[in-house]
Design brief:
By secondary structure, this protein is α+β, with helices and mostly antiparallel strands. The chain contains 24 helices and 21 strands. The chain is globular.
Length: 697
């Protein structure tokens, strides 16, 4: 287990120490920051940070960096948009993109930016609604009440998004109200070769030399949105030992899970995920060898698979470490002893851990059917998921809001429709390959005699089914999708489209296994996790941070190196190192724009750096700011040790990896001549802008 470090045994028990924590805006430990770093963020400071940091609905973070709606995020967070805007003749992933004028900014087909404007604690309301309920009744009531709260918040305004966020495994519920921007346009993106320099071999490693940055702009009513709450650019960027804050949307952590849940993850879920992703990577790698166009249209998917595979390996290694896992066991045992020692607490909470263990055992019995019938491992095609959404919309939308599947409640409909009717290109050859792979794996895992396998495949092979339904479907056309949506259940049921027919055929079985999971597993885990969280509150208080939930959070830390296998890792790399590491061959081949500009750039300019900020996937694209709320960097990765951060944090080695703010300025000015962007970030800096090369416009 390469460089795996045992994480402190404290996880999930006592209050967080050191720079640990992905904190909510309404429970940030300002006094703790002052004690360690001599700076205490005030409420006005926190409010400006919250409004300047934004979320990309697809799973990343970003920030406003000008008063005219300019948004900075990672290149890999905008890859979907960049790929969708590309063609075989004009490949913006390979060649980059720069809009020299506002009129040249290109609208992303399916990107949404969310700005958090309000947080409301609704715990009491949710607890009152579900008091004394258990099992299915608890689950149904909770979902209905959540939908009710979200609907009242958005009040039918499609420019507002409201998410009810579960914190502390149900110990608290907060309502997050967002300002929603769905007209997002591409402004600047470098070439993939420099945005992901080092490729998969360097992913989750340090030192790094990446320019993983992209700029987009939000519009409303066809005009750039005025954004007074934005982050100004720092003069010198981050330096060693500087205090740093990361504001973003960490996707998920599992630091508060019970031992039963962690054992299932370690022994079942992660090994199966690793096998599935490894085989999917192999399929996509072979697909890319069919030709340059096949490589272009599948590169974004392959990037995501490889990133997920490496992250899953790191998480699995963390859970396989015996000392670390023993620390998790000890923390749970300590909490349970404290509960058992108090008769009142014992009566309320003692059974919760055993109930969760029973639910995990039940999950093991339905895991395969759940994965392949409902969760997308078998019917693994974007077109199929579109067809299923149309089928389910016909059934769900006539129901009362609180009785629908969560993805069809009123609060989610705007985003769902934007995704369904997006003009983003769909590639039939790739869809056939994906669906063939999924159906093949489904037959392999469930067995050829499984009723669902027989129903879906009949006498055909996976490839024959995939080819028939993809080639025969009209769902590639957004107008066809909208017609079925508008026509409702009657139009869907009458459709002869083979992809819709496949979705209609599969849906009863898919719904049945989903219902079994929600009633027999999910509801039990949710209810009892809520009890475990309340037990922790009663014993340890509320000085802990909740697990990440892809909701806005703040972490604090500093620019700091670390020891790796006896060697000191310096915290900052330089731009000259980028050229020193280049070999001319993928993934260490620099784009022509950089090779032409080597003598022009200042080699000592900081390139990438690391900090002790606590982050996880979803923080990609997060701004790194100083105490003056100035941009000093852009988060794009963590080091290999940070992958164990899913389950715990060790400040001695867990590191955030970011693009240095000065590298962004140097590249925009001297390599790309992106003067219009440069002037927005740092007014007056375009007066000395030698232009050597530009990405394609």
């Amino acid at each position: 287990m390469k460089r795996l470090v045992v994480i402190a045994a404290l996880v999930g028990a006592a209050p967080a120490l050191a720079d640990e924590g992905m904190w909510t805006y309404n429970n940030f430990p300002a006094a703790k920051v002052k004690e360690k770093y001599g700076f205490q963020p005030e409420q006005q400071w926190m409010d400006k940070l919250r409004l300047g940091a934004v979320r990309l609905a697809g799973g990343c973070s970003a920030s406003f960096v000008s008063p005219d709606g300019l948004v900075m995020t990672n290149h890999h967070c905008a890859r979907g948009c960049i790929e969708q805007l590309s063609t075989a003749k004009q490949d913006y992933l390979a060649n980059g993109f720069y809009a020299k004028a506002q009129a040249e900014e290109k609208q992303c087909p399916a990107m949404e930016v969310n700005q958090l404007v309000e947080i409301t604690d609704v715990t009491e309301q949710l607890n009152k609604a579900t008091a004394s309920l258990t099992g299915k009744q608890y689950s149904d009531t909770l979902k209905a009440e959540m939908s009710k709260v979200e609907k009242a918040c958005s009040n039918g305004d499609d420019k507002v998004r409201c998410d009810l966020v579960t914190l502390y495994q149900g110990g608290k519920y907060n309502l997050y109200k967002y300002r929603r921007f769905q007209d997002v346009r591409l402004v600047f993106a470098p070439e993939h070769a420099i945005a992901f320099f080092g490729g998969d071999p360097d992913n989750f490693e340090f030192p790094r030399y990446d320019l993983d940055v992209t700029f987009v702009r939000v519009y409303q009513d066809k005009q750039p949105v005025k954004t007074p709450d934005y982050f100004k650019w720092s003069e010198g960027g981050a330096k060693e030992n500087d205090l740093t804050f990361v504001a973003g949307n960490p996707g998920r952590t599992s630091r508060a899970l019970t031992i039963a849940e962690l054992e299932y993850t370690r022994d079942v879920s992660l090994p199966k995920t690793l096998m599935y992703l490894s085989e999917l990577r192999g399929m996509l790698t072979e697909f890319q060898k069919r030709g340059p166009e096949q490589k272009r249209i599948s590169s974004n998917l392959l990037f995501g698979v490889e990133n997920g595979l490496k992250a899953s390996k790191g998480r699995h290694e963390a859970l396989l470490d015996k000392k670390f896992f023993a620390s998790k066991v000890a923390a749970e045992q300590e909490l349970r002893k404290k509960v058992d020692a108090n008769p009142e607490l014992k009566k309320k909470y003692a059974a919760a851990w055993d109930e969760i263990a029973k639910a995990e055992a039940q999950l093991l019995t339905i895991r395969k059917d759940l994965n392949f019938l409902e969760q997308g491992n078998g019917l693994s095609s974007g077109l199929f998921h579109t067809a299923r959404a149309l089928v389910r919309a016909g059934d769900e939308l006539p129901k009362d809001n609180g009785q629908r599947l969560r993805e069809f409640n009123d609060a989610n409909l705007t985003a769902l429709k934007a995704q369904l009717f997006s003009p983003a290109p769909i590639y039939p050859e790739l869809e056939i390959a994906r669906l063939t792979f999924g159906l093949t794996k489904m037959r392999e895992e469930l067995g050829a005699k499984h009723p669902f396998v027989k129903k879906v495949l009949g006498k055909e092979s996976p490839e024959q089914v995939a080819t028939r339904v993809v080639k025969g479907t009209k769902l590639i056309d957004p107008k066809a999708r909208k017609a079925l949506w508008d026509g409702g259940k009657k139009a869907v049921d009458a459709s002869k489209d083979p992809m819709v027919q496949l979705a209609l055929l599969a849906d009863p079985d898919s719904r049945a296994i989903r219902k079994k999971f929600e009633d027999d597993v999910e509801s039990i885990i949710k209810k009892n996790s809520e009890l475990v969280a309340k037990a922790k509150f009663d014993i340890y208080g509320t000085s802990q941070y909740p697990d990440a939930t892809f909701s806005p959070r703040v972490s604090f830390g500093s620019v700091k190196g670390y020891m790796d296998e006896g060697q000191q890792v310096a915290p900052i790399t330089q731009m000259s190192g980028t050229f020193e590491h280049a070999t001319g061959q993928d993934p260490y081949a620099l784009p022509k724009s950089w090779l032409k500009s080597e003598k022009v750039i200042t080699g000592t300019t900081p390139m990438n750096f690391i900090t002790t900020n606590d982050i996880i996937g979803g923080n990609s694209g997060s701004p790194v700011v100083n105490k003056n709320l100035e941009v000093v960097g852009l988060v794009f990765d963590g080091n290999i040790q940070s992958l164990g951060g899913e389950y715990g944090f060790d400040e001695s080695v867990n590191r955030t990896v970011a693009v240095h703010s000065e590298a962004i300025i140097e590249a925009l000015q001297k390599i790309y001549g992106a003067n219009r962007v440069l002037e927005e970030l740092r007014p007056g800096s375009t007066k000395v802008a030698p232009v050597k090369a530009n990405p394609a416009g």
